[in-house]
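User: Okay, second chain of the day. Same drill as before: sequence in, structure tokens out.
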Amino acid sequence: MSDRRIERHQLVCFLKVFNRFTDKPLGFLGNVTEDRIMLISQLPLLVGGNFEFRLKLPAHEGGQQFIDLSARCLWSHEDTSPHYYDSGFILFKPPAEYASLISALHRYFSFHPLQASA
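Assistant: Same drill. Structure tokens below.
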């Protein structure tokens, strides 16, 4: 993934998580760390179950980059929003592209105050 910032109109597509094998949407990223993710979905997910995820990221010239992740569900409970569930996963050997994703999300969502000039 490049250092280019994620454009706002792409953010909804960027945060979707798919089943790697069926390509069906499972939910949206709610939180990410180096070895864990939180998924927000419309159904509770099986605690203790292994999952194969695919993130589809916007790439240069309108293409897509895929990041495939293998994970185990550690917990799942109702979200504060009705009809949604939060589920926490530990990742098995996330690829280098995933680290780039975390870095890009951190830059995108970080607040950088302007320097005051004297």
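The first helix runs from residue 11 to 14.

User: Thanks, on to the next one.
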